[in-house]
Amino acid sequence: MRSARFAVSAMALALTGGVAAAAYAKGPQEQSIQNEDQQKPNTEKQTPRTMNDLWGSKDATSKASDPRTAWFTHDRYAMFIHWSLFSQAASTWKGKKYYGIAEWLMHPAMANISKDDYATLANDFDPKSFDANAWVDFFKRAGIKNVVITAKHHDGFAMFKSKADRFNIVDATPYKRDPLKELANACHRADIRFGFYYSQYQDWREQGSAAVAWDDPQQKHSFDDYFKRKALPQVRELLKNYGPISVVWFDTPGTMGEKYSRELVHMVKKYQPKALINSRIGNGVGDYATYGDNEVPRVSPPGVWEAVDTTNDSWGYSVTDYNWKSPEELLHRLISTSARGGTYMINMGPRPDGTFPDIPKAALLDVGDWLTHHGETIYGAGRSPWSIAQPWGDVTTGKDGMYLHVFDWPVSGTHSIALYGLQGKVRRAHLMAGGADLTVTTDGDWTRITVPDRRPDGLVPVVALEMDGAYQVKDADVIASEVNSSLIAERAKCWECKYTPIGWMERFGEWKAANSLTDWKPGSKATWNAEVQKLGIYKLRVDFSVNSTADFSQWEVGVGDQRYTFEAHYTGEREVQNRTGRRQFWGALDPRYRRQDVGAVTLDAGAQTITIRPLTTDGTAASVKVTALRLEPMGLRVEAVSDR
Ligand code: FHN
Questions:
Q1: Tens digits of per-residue pLDDT, 506-548?
Q2: Ligand 1 pocket test: which of 251, 280, 346 has the largest number of ligand atoms within 8 Å of its C-beta?
Q3: CA neighbours within 13 Å on the CB side: how many for 616?
Q4: Residue 36 is inside which H or E element, if any?
Q5: Nearest CA to ligand 1 atom 1
Q6: How far apart are CA 511 and CA 11, in angstroms?
Q7: Nearest-CA neighbor of 614 among 469, 496, 476, 479?
Q8: How many other C-beta atoms lie within 10 A of the C-beta of residue 123?
C-alpha cells in the first residue's frame, strides 16, 4: 500500500520536541519540550518527523479474504467515541477558548496545562446523565454495528476502573462508576460490537512514555517502564474484564519499537483471539489499515481498511467546534468509503454530562433512517467494480448486480446517468424507492439509465441495476455529459512530476488530505486518458494549491490537439503553521486548495488525452499542487460556438 508522506507538521513536531525540529525554526515552547524517548530511543528508528510517522505504517497483516475480518468488511459502519477528561474542559481553559482538536487541550500546542492542573478536571467530572442503554438505542437507530470508545487517550486518564493506575474515572472522579463496563454490557445485550481505543505510545502524564512530559523535563523513567507499569496492564484489564472485544484501536505509535507492538498483539491474541487490531499499533503488525484522520481515499485501496472521520472537526467535545457535517455529507462519506471497499468509522464527542450533542445526533439518525430502507447497499455490499467514484455518485455491489448511489441528480440533458465500460447484460434497472422500471440503453461502451426528471426524495436516491450473470467493467477515467467530472491526481500519469499524498492541519490537529501532482519541472506534464461521453463545451477548472512563489506562473491544459493556457493565481497557501493563539513558523507550508476557472473548452466524444503542464520555465511553478481537473458541462450546443 502506498504510504502517504504528509508534510512535517506542528503536531508531529510538537510531539518530537527538539530533535526533529532542529532543522526548522522553533519557538521557545518547542525547544523546552524534552522527551526521554529521544534521549534513549527504544528503537533504531528515528523520532517521528511527520504525521505519517506518528500514525505508523498502514501495512497490515490481513487479506481481504481472511475470515476473521469478514464481519468488519461486512458491517462497514462503526461509531468512534472520544470521551474523557478533555470533554469536561470542552476546549476552554481559565476562561479562554481554544480552537483545534479538543482532546489535545492539555498539550503545549494548545493550552499548555500542567499535569496537576489538568488532573483537577477530574474533581468535577460527573457524567450523571450518561445512560448506556440510551446510547445503544441511539446507535441502533443510527444503523451502527460496532462501537469503539476511548479507554485511555493521550492525556493518560482511564475511562474505566483500572487497578494499574488510579487516574481513572472510578477512583479519581465523583462519578465513581465505570462507563465502559456499562456500555460494553449494553452493546453486548443489543448485539452491537464493542471495542476500545488505547493510546499506547503517548501518555502525557507518564514519564518515559513518548509523551512530552513538558512540566517534567528531567525524565527519570524509560518508555519500557511506562509500558510495563501502565500500558500493558491496562490493556490486559480491558481485554479481560469487558466481555467480547471487537476491535482494539491503538493510536499514534510513532517510533515505538516493534517488540512493544508485538507484545500488545500477543496479549490481544491471548485474551481476545477474535479481536481485530488496527494498523496504528505500529510496525505493520495490525490486522487492518486505518487511513489518516478524515481521509476517504479516492482510489480503492487493496486489503482490509477503514476511514476514520468525525461529525465536526474535533474528536472530543468542544464548545468552539460546531461545524457539524450534514446528514447528506455523512452519508456520502459512508457510501464513498463502502464503494472503495472500506469500513467507515464516524466519531462523536459526548458532552461532559454523558449525552450526545443534538445536531450530529440528529444527522446520524437521518443516516440511520436512510439505512433502514437502503441497508443492503452498504451492509454486506461489495466495493465498486470501478476503482474510482462515478461523476454522478458511487457504486456498491450486491449479489444481483449494482447499487448506483446518485449524489448529483442529472437536471438537464436526457436526465440519465451513464456507466462507462460495463460488459454484461442488464436485466433490470429501478429506483430502490419504488416506481417503474428505468430505461437502459447502450451506445458503444456507454450504458445509460434514464432517470425521472424529478429527483426522488431522501438523502441519496439509489438505482438498483440488476445484472444477468457475470459482468466486468473497464476501469477508465470518464467525463460525463450531464454532471460534473473530476480527473484526480491519483490517476494521472506523471512525466517529470510527482504524485504526492498531501496532508495538513486546518486548525490544530484537524487533518485534511488532498493528494496532488507536485514537483513540476520545465518539460513536466501529467496526463489522463479519459473517455468523454459526448462532444460538448465544458467549463475547465483546476483544483490546486498555489503558493506566492508560483503566483502568475503560466500553465497549459491540452485537450486532444487544442491548447488552453492560463495563469495560476496564489491560493493563499500559508507560510505559517497555525497553532492556537499563535502563528508559528515551522518551515513547512500549509497548502490551501482553491478551484480556479480556466475557461470553456471543447471536448470531442471518445478517448481523449488531457494534459496539464507548466509553461513557466524558471522553476517558480515547481511548488504547485494539483489535486484535480474539473470538467463541467455548460449545456451549450457545440454548433452555436464559432470560436475554438
Ligand atoms: O492524536 C489523536 C487524536 O486526538 C485523535 O484521537 C485521532 C483519531 O484518529 N487520532 C490521533 C491523531 O491521529
A1: 888 899 999 999 999 999 999 999 999 999 999 999 999 999 9
A2: 251
A3: 18
A4: helix 36-39
A5: 252
A6: 10
A7: 496
A8: 11
Q: CB neighbours (10 Å) of residue 434?
A: 8
The radius of gyration of the chain's CA atoms, rounded to the nearest angstrom, is: 26
3-state class of 155 per DSSP?
A: coil
Phi, psi dihedrals of residue 174, rounded to the nearest 5°:
-70, -15
Ligand 1 lining (C-beta closer than 6 Å): 101, 103-104, 251-252, 293, 308, 315
> Cell 481521509 maps to which residue?
295
How many angstroms separate the most distant Cα atoms in the chain?
80
Q: Quickly list H helices, 64-222.
A: 70-75, 85-89, 115-119, 121-124, 132-142, 169-172, 179-189
Task: Give the separation between CA 186 and CA 169, rounded to whole angstroms.
Answer: 19
Residues 484-500: tens digit of each pLDDT: 999 999 999 999 999 99
Q: What is residue 486's three-state secondary structure?
A: strand
DSSP state of 100: S
CA distances from 29 to 34, 92, 262 (A): 10, 20, 34
341 Rama sector, left if φ>0, alpha if ψ -120 to 50, beta otherwise: left
- Four-CA torsion 12, 17, 18, 22, nearest 10 degrees: 10
Q: How many Å lie between the centroid of ligand 1 and the Cα of residue 103? A: 8
End-to-end CA distance of the chain: 43
Q: How far apart are CA 31 and CA 12, in angstroms?
A: 14
Q: Which amino acid is at 315?
A: W
Measuring CA to CA, which residue among 82, 183, 230, 177 is closest to residue 169?
177
- Atom 13 of ligand 1: nearest residue by CA position: 293
Task: Using CB atoms within 10 Å of the CB of residue 131, give its burial: 0 to 12 exposed, 13 to 18 middle, 19+ buried.
Answer: middle
Per-residue pLDDT tens over the stretch 181-218: 999 999 999 999 999 999 999 999 998 886 555 566 66
Residue nearest to atom 5 of ligand 1 (CA): 315
Separation of alpha carbons 210 and 38, rounded Å: 8
Distance (Å) from CA 467 to ligand 1 centroid: 42
pTM for this model (two decimals): 0.93
For the chain, the residue count is: 644
Which amino acid is present at 438? L
Residue 45: the pLDDT is 46
Residue 511 Cα to ligand 1 middle (Å): 9
User: According to the 3-state scheme, what is the secondary structure of 436-482?
Assistant: CECCEEEECCEEEEECCCCCCCCCCCEEEEEEEEEEEECCCEEECCC
Ligand 1: residue of 101, 202, 204, 305 to mutate (most ligand atoms within 8 A of CB) is 101
Cα–Cα distance measured from residue 188 to residue 3, given in angstroms and rounded to the nearest whole number: 36
